Every structure is written in C-alpha cells, then in structure tokens.
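Appendix B. Raw example, untouched.
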Amino acid sequence: MNNLPHNNQAHLSEEEAQELMRSLRQKKGTWVDWGKACQQLQKAGYSPQQIFEQTGLQASQQNLVIVAAQVYDSIVQAGVSEEVSAYFQGPKSDVLYEFRILNQKQRAAAAELAYEKKLDVDGAHEVAKAVKEVSRFSQLPEAFTSDPGDVVAYLCWKRARQKKDLQERSRLIAQGLKFARSQTAREAIETLLSDFTVVPTKTAPLLPVYRLESDSELPRIIPVAGSFPISRQEIEIVARIDVQEPFRTIQVVSYGTFVPVPGWQVVLKAVDPVGFFWPSHRLPKPLPGKVEEVLVILDRAVQQWNPNSYFLVEKEEKLALQWFEEEPNLSILGQLILVLRPKKILDENNIMEPWQMDD
C-alpha cells in the first residue's frame, strides 16, 4: 500500500514521518507524546487508517490522545502544579478528554479537582457536564463558589431538595459532600440531613410547536410591479421568484415590494406570478360597491390565448385586462389568475383597543 501522505501540509519528510510511526508503534514516551505525534502525521496528510496500519492505534484512539494532549497543553499553560501535570502524564488521557468542552481556566480547575479526588472517566464526565451547565447561570447561591467541586455539589444540593425518595436524596447528599470544596457549600448540603422540605421541580415550558395542515395556511409571496397606470416594462422587469419548500422561502436578490397571498390552489399553480394594484372600476367587469384598489395577480408564464381566461395585453402602448372570444392580434403579457380585494374591517380603530364588555 502507498504510505505517502495525500497532502503534505505540514512539510513532514518521509524520514520524519517514519520516525514518528516507529515511536508510536513502539509506544515510546507518554500518551501526550503519542497524541502530538498523531496530530503531526495527520496534519502532514496521513489518514487515520494509514496511521493505524503502521502503528496499531485505531482512529478512535488517535482522536482521543490528540484531543487529550491539547487539553493537557492548555492546563500546563494555565499554570497547574507540577504534581498535577505529572499525574496526568499517567494513563489519564480519557479523563482529560472529558474536559475538552471547557475553556482553559475551567480545564485547569477541573484537572486540579480530578487530581485531588482521583476521579475516573465517569467522574470527570460529570464534572465537565456540571461546569458547562452552571456556566450558563447568572450566579450561584451564596453558599457555593465557582470551583468545579462546588459546582457539582450545588447540582447535587439542588437535585436532592427536589427528591421525595429518601434513598435517592441521601445518595445525592453524599455525592455533594464528596465534591464540595468550600466550607459554606458543605454546610449548605449538611442542612439537608435535617431539613426534609421538598422543593417542587421546575420544568421547562412546552415549545410553541405548530404544524401547517393545509397549503392555504402558508402564503405565497408575490412580487408587486406597481400600481395603475402601469407600463409593460414595469411588468417585465420584475425578477422571477423561486420558491423553496417546505416553508416556501424565497431569496430576494434585489429591492422590491412583495405581498403575501394565501396558498390557494390557483396561486400555487402559477409558474411566474406578478402582482399589481388596479382600480376596481377598471376591471373587465367592474366590481360592485365602492371603488377601491384591488390586487391583480398575473401569471407571466401563460402567454398563450385561451377563451376561458382574462389576459393582460398591450393596446396602443397602454395595458389593459381583457377577455377575447377569439385569439387576439395583440401582445399578451400574462394570464389573469386572481383579483384580491382588501380585507374588510368594519372598525379599524376598534381592533387596536382592548376588548371590553359592559357589566
């Protein structure tokens, strides 16, 4: 098999690479050295599979020691004691790997705690998770400090107060006392030995989740060309909008005016819809009632005449909506698919006021 790297990004010579492979194969140095060697080889373009074939280190092991070595370097840079740094050079890569989700200061404090309490990987996971969770809080109760041990103790204290089951409550109290670093934290937890008050658990509210049940509930966004009087150029210059499912999102590449229209079938079927505002009394059949501005929607993709539709045509350099009994000798700009009247509001001021009922 060709063992040459695919991408020599780190400018590692073949001799240097083989020396690193040899040291990994013979397990020279500490796991920190292995992690740095694996990282060098991967940066030089050697795949985890190639490294595995030459060293026996599986890809998951390579990832673990690479990340853990980075965590080790960060706690050394943060100034942990020599006893702590020496302790973690032993077989503790899995413990440090758990601290990868923390920042440098948190990693150093967690490493000090792990050294003091001789934590295994499960204990380290619990500490890292607790520190990450509590870091989002604005502040802790006064009895607890931001020390990782106190953080775990705080969560144990909080959960113990919510438990009715005495066995589970006692387990959490014991765990909290094990991790508590400050005297005030220990005292707060010890009060639970005599105070059996249960604090109700606060649960997160339900998410406001809805599902659209019909196409008409989701509007289609229609570009608006303008208002009467309108020119052919104004109709044609409007850029076509591509709708992306499932939420019918659109990408606007230029400035413009848009209007939402309910997702009625006739609107959804339109290939290239464009809207414009038109006086109701200038429609091919004037609408009854007061004269008002209506929204006319045109499908520019339909420019072939048929006797069952109205069309927007150009007559003597003016635009008109018209029905034709026979195919016209006129330029058709599109088919009329919808005339939308504005919403009828009986009292516009009333909807802005709080609803009231007479006594």
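End of appendix B.
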